[in-house]
Amino acid sequence: METGRDSGCVCSNGCGCESNVSDSNITISVTPTTGGQFDLAVTKTDSIENLKKLISKKLKVPKERICLLHRERQLRDGTVQENHLVNGSRLTLLPSVETGLLVSLHLIYFNKTIV
């Protein structure tokens, strides 16, 4: 008789099934506001940080510049599952403005009004 380990089962039960593994894999569609669309294969336990890293590598953009929206809500932390992403979910990728420029403009404005 074949055991879970011999059959290639990777679920924690060692039962020989592979359904638990395939259920945790999902495909998410990412649409940048600049155009185009691509799909990413992730697991439900992947963090949003890891999702941003995958997108960062694909688009060659720093992950700090990536802002993801799902149903008009920004994804900041947690896992794919905690953010209610399912197979076929669509994310919108927004360009993230560098805060350094905004802080500089803000300081310049207030320095002029104070002086």
UniProtKB/TrEMBL annotation:
* Organism encoding this protein: Rhynocoris fuscipes
Q: Which UniProt keywords apply?
A: Nucleus
State the source organism's domain of life.
Eukaryota
One annotated Gene Ontology cellular component of this protein: nucleus
List the Pfam families.
ubiquitin
PANTHER family, per this entry? MIDNOLIN
Question: Per the annotation, which location comes first and is thus the protein's main one?
Answer: nucleus
Alphabetical list of PROSITE patterns matching this protein:
UBIQUITIN_2
Q: What is this protein called?
A: Ubiquitin-like domain-containing protein
Domain (Ubiquitin-like) spans 26-100
**Lineage, opening ranks:** Eukaryota, Metazoa, Ecdysozoa, Arthropoda, Hexapoda
Subcellular localization, per the record? Nucleus
Transmembrane regions: none
Question: Which InterPro entries does the record match to this protein?
Answer: Midnolin, Ubiquitin-like_dom, Ubiquitin-like_domsf
